[in-house]
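User: I'm putting together a small comparison set for a docking exercise, and I want a reference complex before I start. The sequence is below, and the ligand is zinc ion. Could you produce the 3D structure with the ligand included, as structure tokens?
Assistant: Of course. I'll restate your input first, then give the structure tokens for the complex.
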Amino acid sequence: MFHHFYDDKHIKGQGAISQNELAQIIEYYQRHHQILPALEWLEKAIQNNLHENEVCLTFDDALLCQYEVALPVLEAFDLSAFWFVYSSVITGGTEKLEIYRKFRTSCFEGIDAFYEDFFGTVNTSPYASQVVTALNEFSPATYLSQFPFYTEADRRFRFVRDHALGVDAYNHILDQMIDAQNIDLNDFSSDLWMNDRQVIALHEKNHVIGLHSHTHPTALAALPAKDQWTEYKTNYDTLNEILNATPETVSHPCNSYNHETIQILQDLKIKIGFRSNMAEPHSSLLEFPREDHANIMGKIAA
Ligand SMILES: [Zn+2]
């Protein structure tokens, strides 16, 4: 499972890898696994006919850095992949999650300077006391323990973002921090996502384009079923219209799903889905495990 890549144009954010590192991962995997073309892996997965050493590559979030940095590497290896696209951003919209990521990467000396500004802004906001109360429940040893590469500061930040604040309050805090730096958002977000033509180009090159919700909520499973339905139905309709092909695959944004999500995906006739960790053996065709590239980098370095 891949997310961010960097080169001279795309900044080196947390967890981002280079073309060389992607090539190393592919070569490392090819020693003991067979990386199948995406369409072939999909066909075998649907028929429950995958060998244990047959794997595939996946890219989440429709990021322009994937298209510009990773795709040429895949082509050099003659490989194809799954690309999970949240559709709001390829139809001219923006999404705050990614803008905030670039903001915290490119507008601060380091991630700790960002965390300092973040907690400073929280402490002088109307949310200060609810955050203090929530942090009593925070346990860095157990929170997100399935993601071993997060630091304690990463866990604390994510806990406050997702559990103490919630989406609206978090966005309010970040918007305030961005305002304080006089950033032009149109210009700032112009190199973040692919456009619809690039997604079509991937589809035409026999890559597989799959669902990833419309607006990428960080906690989709916390939404009422009708809002989850709107997320996935809009995503489905948008990709169907752009590609003239019905999506058959999904990856769960931020690994967030529940039994209602699964029901919705079954109603949409989605055949194969991916989690974003290896924590549990997969229990259905909509919950294939995935290894984060950060863990693979760790294994290569070891
Ligand atoms: Zn995602």
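The chain has a mean pLDDT of 94. DSSP finds 13 helices and seven strands in the chain.
User: Thanks, that's exactly what I needed.
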